[in-house]
Amino acid sequence: MADGGRPARCAAQAAAHASGYTLLELLVVLSILGLVTALAAPPLIRTVSTWQRQSDIDSVMEQVRGLPMRARSGGRTMVIDDASLQGTESPLRAPDGWSLSATVPWVIHSNGVCEPGELMLRRDEREVPIVVHAPFCQPRRPALDDGGPGP
């Protein structure tokens, strides 16, 4: 056009519309993101919870593995039963939120040799048995109903 104003203004408006997204496009993208988050978040939360629970169980298992060395270095026999687990000088510490009991009391002799025994680690309704095998105090978890790791 002769005055040049009209086509330049139409081109500027077209450029402004081409550089942004419409409200409908943004709503569709946000809806998809919300749907993906709703589908992915629960399994991720369960996974983190499972990792924390397994870390707590592994912590107790490591403490059990270290008891023969403590008995040898102290030169004394250790008896692991409910009374010894409840005292202030307990040889094993349950992680926060867990309780620990000896369903079958066991003895660790001053030379580091163990007699068989069994511990029960509890949190809420969950119970985790830990069986200690003689003579080397090797703790094992029996096969669990929920498909957890076995011996």
Topology (SSEs and partners):
Layout: H1 5-18, H2 23-74, E1 78-80, H3 82-86, E2 99-104, E3 106-108, E4 117-123, E5 126-133, E6 138-140
Antiparallel strand pairs: 1-3, 2-4, 4-5, 5-6
Question: What features would you describe in this structure?
Answer:
With about 150 residues, this protein is an alpha+beta fold. It has one domain. Helix content is about 45%, strand content about 20%. Strand 4 and strand 5 form a beta hairpin. The longest helix is centred in the first third of the chain and has 52 residues.
Strand content: 15-25%
What is the averaged pLDDT score? Answer: 85
> What's the helix count?
3
For the largest sheet, list the strands in their spatial order: 2-4-5-6
The portion of residues assigned to helices is 40-55%
In short:
The protein has 151 residues and is an alpha+beta fold. The protein contains three helices and six strands, in the order H-H-E-H-E-E-E-E-E. The N and C termini lie far apart (86 Å).
